[in-house]
Amino acid sequence: MPQTRGFLPPRTKRAVRTRDANPYRQFATEIGERMTVVDVETGDLYPTRVGAEPSLVRRQDPVVWPGVQSGPIDRQTLASYDEKGFLTVDGLLTPAEVQEFWQELQRLSNDAEVKADERTIVEKASDEVRSIFEVHKISEAIGRLAADERVLDRARQIVGSDVYIHQSRVNFMPGYKGKGFYWHSDFETWHAEDGMPRMRAVSMSIALTDNYPFNGGLMLMPGAHRTFVSCVGATPENNYKASLTEQEIGVPDENSITKLAAEHGIEQFTGSAGSALMFDSNSMHGSGNNITPFPRSNIFLVFNSVENRLHDPYGAAAPRPTFIADRNFIPVQR
């Protein structure tokens, strides 16, 4: 496994845990008692946005799927991913590669044609670029990265099959005014609005800047990926246009978040530029605002199994555009 390398000396990844002396610890014991098991006869293992009250649904799918016998992830790390729902890779990119991709992000964000494209999302207040979707098709360099064995083989090893890119984007969180994202499970949206049937997708976030505990780094609840939070509220038409800047539909209720945090605690991804985080589609995660001078940017790739093709949306009238959720299930090839 590559070693951590970046522009600053490597830092130990820090875990912020909230398990001990938690005043809400009582909620943890209630999770098992109140867990909902879905009737599979409905054909929807994870119903959401259909009930009057939120509910907790026991995961019906494996975390690490069988099918690929070997790969770059060792057994111990794979077992930890199965337990926690995420893993980290130190030094996935070399310092030279980090610089190359950072320059590519700067080029894209300053390109007037790219900024005017519907695949580019800008901040409400500042009109600055927040994300560029389908970036593996816009940028040849990022397209090659998605097919790199360091990336692709890890994804295949987790989902147990060939994979296609369900979604790709680059994210920009500038210093002082970078906006975070509230707690959520990506799978809830991919299931409700894209029609992804099973939890058989994995995301990889590749850091192009140093991730400190204080500049809006991603927070995750280890182990919460085994619980699906069924949300309330019907999906508005073209909900994606608003949700990509600030998600309001498909957001877990505070009571469910409190229960999961009491049971599982919270950890945060930190590390040098070039490191990577891989996390399960149902990982409960979120990030705070970045009020520091230190920006945070990353390349974000979502790999879905070719055996987990999208259906009609389970909780929306129509699927989101293909630049957000691709419906061309061609396997990524090295």
From TrEMBL:
It is an enzyme of class 1 (oxidoreductase). It comes from the Bacteria. One of its GO terms (molecular function) is 2-oxoglutarate-dependent dioxygenase activity. Keywords: Dioxygenase, Iron, Metal-binding, Oxidoreductase. Its EC number is 1.14.11.55. Involved in the biosynthesis of 5-hydroxyectoine, called compatible solute, which helps organisms to survive extreme osmotic stress by acting as a highly soluble organic osmolyte. Catalyzes the 2-oxoglutarate-dependent selective hydroxylation of L-ectoine to yield (4S,5S)-5-hydroxyectoine. This is Ectoine hydroxylase. It comes from Actinoalloteichus fjordicus.
